Fold each of these.
Amino acid sequence: MSKAASQPRRLVGHGMIRVDADGKVRGQTRYLNDIRYRNVWHGVVVRSPVARGRFKALTLDPAFDWSRVVVATAEDIPGENVVHMHDRTMPLLGEVGGELLYRGEPVAVVAAKTLKLATEAAGHIRVEVEELPPLLTLQETVDIFKKTPKRFVSMQDKNIVKGDLAKGFAEADEILEAEYWAGHQEQLYIENQGIVVFPQKDGSILAEGSLQCPYFPVNELNDPLQLPPEKIRVRQTPVGGAFGGKEEYPTMLVGYAALPALKSGRPVKITYERHEDILFTPKRHPVWVRYKTGFKKDGTLTAIECDYILDGGAYLTISDVVMFRGILHCALAYRCDNVVIRGRVARTNSMPSGAFRGFGAPQAIWGIESHMDAIAARLGMTPHALRRKLHARAGDTTPTGQVLSKENGATECLNLALERSQFAQKLRQSSRGKLRKGQSKYYGAGLSFFAHGAAFTGDGEAKFQAKGRVELARLEDGRPGVNIRVSSTEMGQGVHTIFTQIAADAFSLDPARIRYPMADTGLVPDSGPTVASRTTMVVGNIVHRASLDLKAQMEAFASLHFFRGEKARLENSQFHAEGRKPLPFGRVAGKMLDELGEASGFFQFKLPADIRWDQDRFRGDSYPGYSWAAHIAEVEIDPITCELEVTRVTAVIDVGRIINPILAAGQVEGGLTQALGYAVMEKMATGKDGLYDASRLQTYIIPTALDTPAYDIQFVEYPYSFAPPGGKGLGELPMDGLAPAIANAVEAAIGKRLRTIPITPESIFDALHDPSGATP
Amino acid sequence: MRPTENINIRFPKNLQEALRLQAKAGTRGQLLAGGTDLMVQWVSGTPPPRRATSVWNLPELCEIEVRDKDILIGAGVTHAFLVDATPIHRHLPALVAAAGTVGAAQIQARGTLGGNVANASPAGDTAPALLVTDGTVLLASLGGIREVPLTQFWTGYRQIDARPDEIIQAFRLPKKGAARERFRKIGTRKAQAISKIMAASRIRVRKGQIVSAAIALGSIAATPVRLTQVEDFLAGKPLTAKLITDAEQLAQKTVQPIADIRSTAEYRRWVTGRLVRDALENL
């Protein structure tokens, strides 16, 4: 115990070692495929062979022995054939007579004792389809949008309107319009998707697997499986990375495995090999975004008009909300009185796009941050002078009419990043297409500045009312401790550690007495999905408040049972009372467990009462809090080969209170590296055959350690005071803004603006050899 | 599932025993060295063979002999070994550089020069550097040694001039002597990368005059190729700025690049010329 008993130890703000590090470093953590399940059958998904077609028939080869396998088709779905995510359009399995909308759309699930047999059986199923002409790419839909807008199929529309756009353009001295494109991105978690479903005697199911939102399957498969939420129990196994890829997709996988499991009465496990995982699980949405902006000679923005179209793939799934987050970030970080943003989700005959770190925001920020540099160039201003003038700060009003609070590090992020990187000087050294004295490579520096809205969009958190509990329990050593019971999942980001820190501080308890078991919907309240950079901010607050709740109960108990009514307080793992010898935590907790059987603290999250949100008009307080960041990228481009190297990245970030600076910096480095891949390497498109063209690790290229630049990461802390300890959301932000900083640096290096990512040697070559050579 | 799970792998003790096994196995005689190519192929579409013969660590295949004019490098020598074999560095710098760009440390420790050549990928990292040496492949069989020039060894996409009963024993590679060598790999990233294009060159200049030039490319056609038209154009000419520009343009004109997932034909064509220029400007 600490010597200075009067000074409670604080863990928040310190780089505590990860509580899950030991097992993971030693290779002792058991992931789904490490767990030896007995008598589990293996499931294989049978898929549509075409990108679009009428499903004529599904025939089983009569020569094959089907007695050893179970085949589940749409006919075996107990209820309605639908996965109800954000609409009710997507069937669980394609149905004979209906239309198949993407290559790989599941039409049957085969299960057998061995994976080999199941795979073999799947090969003896014939899927007869009358092929129809598909619409495969975002490019095709954007062409339709431009030429014949009435024929453009949007699965969801949403507009943001602020002020008077026509007036804004009328006031402008100049108008600049440009388009920006970005392609798919694969999450590439190390552990592939995997689920095992155990049918129970009472007709319910227990699903276990690698997922980040345990309550999603509980609430999204009720209709097809004809099971109420309490009959679908979901347990998390250790997750080997997710990045959004295990947000909505595992629901579908649970559905696929549940059908043969319910049909046969046997547990069924489905895990994907890498190739299948890349081909048939959701990617980041490709985007086309067009900005038309009006501005005055002094740099004042008078009008922003923006069209933002995502490629949603064949079904909506969750793309509406991705688009919402996207348009909310399209003009968030700058002062402008007249704004119109139109968001659309295009339908294509491809795998539905899905959640990926950033969730629409990186696509938006890619566009606006490239465009801000283009405006600066048009005005003859430096990129930083323009942003210093225009960036949003406390008291400013966002496009949806939200007034930004004082808990806002925007200005400090921008200034500190410029200063730490010596940006002004570096910009002057940039090559602009001509090697300067002493340069053997083109050099350029680029800036981006942006915000990320933390937690659910709009009144999402107000409606959701996330809940969590901490409970007194005997730990595995038989001595009392505390269990954290929330549905937030550890997927590498460190939540088990930082919640342990938060609870330890709230209790003033040794973190070794705190456990955070894997989420299990049978045991944990619904604190919401592990998404939207909401976990530290929202669920961290729940853990904090629930811990204070239980602590107060324990102090009252100690006062009554040990200190004769003298007021007790728990500090540094001991109960203290005036004039009394302190008692260890375990003594009081043990007696409490003996007498009461159980004790727990609970909290349900609420937003401030004055929050306003109009979902129809998309007006009001779009996020409870905002994180801010400025990035500076420095690049070198080889004039012989057009090879691009990002040499240094400066990132200054306000995500409110930092719970664990080492984990936070690690998360930023990881996210920036993921953003680096998005910007300069990760290239994937829907091919003519309806499949992703880069579907193996051999062809889908992500950065290695050797490709990462030198990182200078600095935090400034403007905590979210409404929800102590005051984090504002960090998970997604590092993915948001590096791509445009790199594109801006490339422009500084070669004097040409590239408007499509990834920026590859080939695209730099094309830009340098483009006969038009125009760069507004 | 391990890719080698159902393969019966034999481990001969020496080359003679391996050759006997190969002679008996005929066309089914799959050889396995480091496994860095085959193991990947066997889990991604190519059905694994029922049996294979390991040539990993066969003593006769692991030797390097530095001789007067040339160097004999055993087919079983790993890329990591080449990188560490300092006595050969000044004689074959392009090959050593190429070996250092293969995959990453783990693959370099396991992958062999013979395997890289036998795999016959147009993107084999060592191929261009081998080609510019004008060296030969020594193929062993029970009948003795057959020596084939490297320039004739890759006969088509993933095809080599070797009979089923033959094992690549070694490479005979002439030292560069007074020539200058250069190697560049343009990968999709800095490690674990298959190249978009590679170039190796061995050019000898005496008194401002190009005596001989060998330039080879990888990842640009069905096989690794020599730019013979450019080489012939350069030979015997004084090295001038105009010559470099002419050679760059000739290279761009005569090369016939492929387009694939890793790059475009236009980029490959352009960068071919740039790499020829780069080689000539750094003599």
Amino acid sequence: MSNTPGVTPEIPQLDPMRVQVRKHAMLNAIEEEPRRRWWRIAVPASVLAAAVVATTVLWTPTNPSAYASWTAEPRAPGPGADSVVEKCRKLIAESPTADMPDWPETPTDLTIVDQRGDLTMVLFTGPESEQSCLGSPKGIEMAGGGGSPNGRPPLGSARFRMGSLGTSDPDPGQGEPRRTLVAEVGAEVAKARVSTDDGKQVTATVDNGWMVAWWPTKAKAISVTLYNSAGEVIGTESAEIK
Amino acid sequence: MTDEELWGQVRAGDGEAFGQLFERHAQAVFAYCLRRTGAWSVAEDLLSVVFLETWRKRASVVVEGSLLPWLYTVALGVTRNHQRARTRYEAALGRVPPHDADDDHADDVARRVDAETRTRAVIAELEKLSAGDREVLEMSAWSDLSQAQIAQVLGIPVGTVKSRLARAQHTVRGAFVEEAL
């Protein structure tokens, strides 16, 4: 303690030019506001939607890896999944965006339960948005999601449409990174597998016209391979959000 | 013009008036964010976030006297969870031209590094306090706010400000205490 500085460390003046740069960037941003409702900032990169509503952090210093039981292949949901579903439903309903006038309507339809080890990912969908939520014995938190107040156009004859690619990237010491991919799939898609740029092959859970896959790293999704019920490859899709 | 007068224009949608408030208070908000985070570039981003969030909530904010108590309120919130705040305003922050390191003089780089080193040393010491005690001590030491204003910013009674400040000062003795008084 004797070698520490005072509680009010001296802070140099900001460069006046940087202040002006920041000011003008800010003014440009707020001038666009009437033309672009603020949800639009969030929805295309649905990472943001997830970040806005994120609540409880699973990781704690005494739990070095909340994702230790994660597996690339999902398994059948266990008896604890129902509890996670209800907690997620409540979490989503009470999220700060739930009552926002320009935010897509909160999804309420339970669409997928994805189980990997003791980690349960739940996907709710609705006419205007989708939202996933991750639960484990340690706690519960929002994952990826997205949507639009204008609703979602029908998938039609398409086999695949990216929904969102959520990223959780906490500060060092505050948790563990995670990516969550949510997409719509056609009726002929029985299985989907995500390839990531760190070499993972993550099998998604597919149900009710949707797929969910997540992995406990910041690795980017490169592609999604789609299979039919006979196990044949019926397509390979980009994981980019268009 | 006073903050109150400018704020009246801001509430009517005047971006230029908001720009004037930005110029007036940017340094104070930046200093607070840097002392809280210990990272220069993060503090610069959070400075923008604080003002963008203030603009977004302009219709519901009433300013009496200075805008600073409100700015500190927002700054406290965004520094509590700065990753989430930065993510929310990612689109706007993306428009800020990156600071070109090649343009920096060595002295500028050195003073940034020095400032980060100093603030991180203080942060390390303050982490010995509870979050509540720490926020009171920080607000008391780093702003010109009265104890009543600090109570308003933190959403706690004035008596709690006093008791937390006394406890924090007791824990963090030495050079810290004199400066916080």
